[in-house]
Design goal:
The protein is mostly helical and about 140 residues long. The chain has a single domain, classed as Orthogonal Bundle (Arc Repressor Mutant, subunit A), CATH 1.10.10.10. It has six helices and three strands; from the N terminus they run αβααββααα. The chain has a three-stranded antiparallel sheet. About 10% of the residues have low confidence.
Length: about 140
């Protein structure tokens, strides 16, 4: 695995709960939809043994709730974002933006970076791309 891909996978692992919450903020989804969407959007495969325990932990913490959808051939557990989950998502996005601003302006006076728009943080760009892809827009 090359260094770029390795860094991307590490970031994805660290941000996986945020990414799942972001996907659920646009629509309720079942686990397989989430697995497929992560693979399609990021080119990284996280299987059921990663996604379902994460969804269970998010539900146990009150960030998502699940309901069984019995309207298809096969019953599926569908996950929805709760108010607490939306609050966590907003807080986490704000925190990531703060961190990225700090990283993006290292060694450059803050006023200059803001005036010249030097800081181009990667994580807010990632979050923006996730949000846009959730709404059917592809960059």
């Amino acid at each position: 695995m090359n260094n770029t891909k390795e860094v991307q996978v590490k970031l994805m692992k660290g941000l996986l709960d945020l990414i799942v919450l972001q996907f659920l903020s646009s629509q309720p989804m079942h686990g397989y939809q989430i697995i497929t969407k992560i693979r399609k959007n990021f080119g990284v495969y996280f299987g059921p043994s990663t996604i379902y325990p994460l969804l269970n932990a998010l539900e146990k913490s009150g960030y998502v709730k699940s309901e069984w959808d019995m309207n298809n051939e096969r019953p599926r557990k569908v996950y929805k974002l709760t108010t607490e989950g939306r609050n966590l998502l907003n807080f986490t996005e704000d925190s990531l933006n703060f961190i990225c601003r700090k990283i993006g302006t290292t060694g450059i006076p803050k006023e200059i970076a803001i005036e010249e728009d030097i800081a181009q943080p990667a994580l807010p760009s990632l979050l923006k791309r996730v949000k846009e892809q959730n709404h059917g827009l592809h960059l």
